[in-house]
Amino acid sequence: MRIVVLGAGAGGGFPQWNCACPNCARARAGDRAARKRTQTSLAVSADGMAWLLLNAAPDLREQISATPLLQPLAPDTQGSLRASPIRAVALSGGDVDAIAGLLHLRESQPLAVYASRRVLTLLAANSIFRVLNPACVSYREILLDRAEPLSDFAGRPLGLTIEAFAVPGKVPLYAEEEGEVKLGTTEGDTVGFTVSDEAGASFHFVPACAALSEALHARLRDSQLVFFDGTLWTDDEMIRLGLGTKTGRRMGHLSVSGDDGTLAGLAPLRIARKVFVHVNNSNPMILEDSPERAIVTRKGWEVAYDGMEIAL
Amino acid sequence: MRIVVLGAGAGGGFPQWNCACPNCARARAGDRAARKRTQTSLAVSADGMAWLLLNAAPDLREQISATPLLQPLAPDTQGSLRASPIRAVALSGGDVDAIAGLLHLRESQPLAVYASRRVLTLLAANSIFRVLNPACVSYREILLDRAEPLSDFAGRPLGLTIEAFAVPGKVPLYAEEEGEVKLGTTEGDTVGFTVSDEAGASFHFVPACAALSEALHARLRDSQLVFFDGTLWTDDEMIRLGLGTKTGRRMGHLSVSGDDGTLAGLAPLRIARKVFVHVNNSNPMILEDSPERAIVTRKGWEVAYDGMEIAL
Q1: What is the Cα–Cα distance from A191 to B276, expressed in whole angstroms?
Q2: In chain A, which end has fewer C-beta atoms inside a 10 angstrom radius, N or C?
Q3: Measured between alpha carbons, how far is B259 from B269 in angstroms, rounded to an integer?
Q4: How sure is the predictor about A54, in pLDDT bands with cuts at 50, 70 and 90?
Q5: 3-state secondary structure of A6
Q6: Which among A12, A76, A103 has the least Cβ separation from residue B100?
Q7: Are B241 and A16 in contact (CB < 8 Å)?
Q8: CA-to-CA distance for A120 and A141, rounded, in angstroms?
Q9: pLDDT tens across B227-247, in order?
């Protein structure tokens, strides 16, 4: 199984378009220790030919442009010039940074979109997503805690299995006060994914997580590879830096540091490889020369970057 | 007045994410005569400090990243670290390639969004756009044929005036078959903009146009600068190249060539500077070494490219 990190940043990316904080200024200046990051999305393939996306970041066009593996190099087997190797997308939630990239995937390309019922309802309630031609895009519901073989629009298997599991989360920002779709934390609207191939390779993808739970511990224990929510270092970071008015918990993100944070919480689980994704511009560990980066490295974690490749 | 072309491509950009046509292959290979283009959006400023965007392309985050003028270089005058020099956006239609970039402009940045009533209704009907915090984003209706001074969220003037005018067009693709908002061609849902500064500089922006009309001729005659729809070279181009099933007219775009095309139609109007924008990957004039490019150049037209700057 091949995995490519298309983007490793949190909502807004790094640098964020409107942010004048010191971290964003360093990234903008091309500082090598403050590497730019687009918003979090992964590409996964069993055969290196047909690809699954985990989340569709708003930067997806730019991400495809930076990733030759995802570009159409020749007409497809039917002779069509619309020939992307991207065959399916699985969405772990309804936030803009997870779904807006679907709007890049228009132009009559056969595609399978996998998501929870709640996220599918949200897509259906927003007519702009109808720009994906229903004649060639198939929306498929993912049920929780059930391993499901993935296939492309035409039903050809991708050689990958996905299983969604509930993660403590929150409703998307834009759906917080609306009546049309009530997304909650108990129905599995924020999910994690376990992706496996037929050779026994397997990893977990949890880009948003508001709290650790017994069920999550059990799911992640002894696993080969976990991509986990690395949004914030501390819960009050956005407020303290003058960047926002909300705590991490209010935004649906557990902190990396602290007694009840991710580093401490996942430490006993004997995970072979631990990689932070969805890293916010405000999180000091995004800087390769920061003391916080030294701490996560010492604790056996990696911080994902755009273009990072992992073979399992 | 300063104008920066942030993107000059049509929907999907150049190369298009899923297209294996020879033009896209050349762009992907880095061929200098097949320059890459993101989707069409312009930035305009009277003072070089506060900027107006004309349309918000899905590539807007990448476009800002490529344009230092649009980056926040220091905290704003109130000391806020959310300090983008982008103060306002005007939308000429509801198509994905004109509006999806609004989703990049989240993160609590004060902003004024100008659009026709129909486009505002479409934004309101799609809950995903609520991600722009209503506490700092002001939606303002533009009426047709009425010059309106532009101001930022706080009401500070930008030193620019905008006037919208009706252009023969079509409904956005995703709204073609829906009931919620009936966008038509007669109510001015596809508009062009005339932007003027206080020193008498003025230009027109018409990124989508399905046909020329007497009213349009009158509007464009004797003008200093026109940015015009350069989507397709011939009406059946997409079909002939095996890239689609629709004619240009069906997609709301007049062709560049032909007796009833743009080159012929605008020739008598004595426009000082004529620039094609919204150029599709299928249009041979996108290639700098094509006979079609030679024709448009000989007829006094330029083909816009990302990063093109014009001072008026």
Answers
A1: 45
A2: C
A3: 16
A4: very high
A5: strand
A6: A103
A7: no
A8: 7
A9: 999 999 998 888 888 888 888
Interface confidence (ipTM) of the complex: 0.94
Residue of B102, B128, B177, B239 to mutate, interface with A, max A Cβ within 10 Å: B128
Q: Which of the residues B71, B99, B127, B243 would you substitute to probe the A interface, choosing the one with the greatest number of A C-beta atoms within 10 Å? A: B127
Q: Residue A276: phi, psi to the nearest 5?
A: -80, 135
Question: What token pair was written down for B153?
Answer: 């969220």
Taking contacts as CB-CB distances below 8 angstroms, the residues of chain B near A129 are 174
> What's at B192, amino acid-wise?
G
Task: Give the span between the Cα atoms of B278 and B268, in whole angstroms.
Answer: 22
**What is the DSSP code string of chain B?**
-EEEEEE-B-TTTBTTTTB-SHHHHHHHTT-TTS--B-B-EEEEESSSSSEEEES--TTHHHHHHT-GGGS--S--TT--SB--SEEEEE-S---HHHHGGGGGG-SS--EEEEE-HHHHHHHHHSGGGGGS-TTTEEEEEPPBT--EEEE-TT--EEEEEEEEEE------GGGTT-SS----TTTTSSEEEEEEETTS-EEEEES--SS--HHHHHHHTT-S-EEEE--BSSTTHHHHTTS-S--TGGGT--BSSSTTSHHHHHGGG--S-EEEESB-TT-GGGSTTSHHHHHHHHTTEEE--TT-EEE-
10 Å Cβ neighbour count for B7? 30
What's the pTM value of the predicted model, to 2 decimals? 0.95
Cβ atoms of residues B21 and B241 within 8 Å: yes
Report the pLDDT averaged over residues B124-136.
Answer: 91
Please give the structure tokens belonging to residue B257: 């060539």
User: What amino acid occupies position A223?
Assistant: S
DSSP A174: G
Alpha-carbon span B277 to B98, nearest angstrom: 13
Please state, in angstroms and rounded to a whole number, the distance separating the CA atoms of residues B290 and B278: 18
CB B88 within 8 A of CB B140: no
Task: Decide: A306 and A5 in contact? Cβ < 8 Å.
Answer: yes
A61 closest CB neighbour out of B13, B241, B242: B13
Q: Are A220 and A266 in contact (CB under 8 A)?
A: yes
- pLDDT at residue B103 above 50? yes
**Which residue of B lies nearest to A108 if distances are taken between CA atoms?**
B244
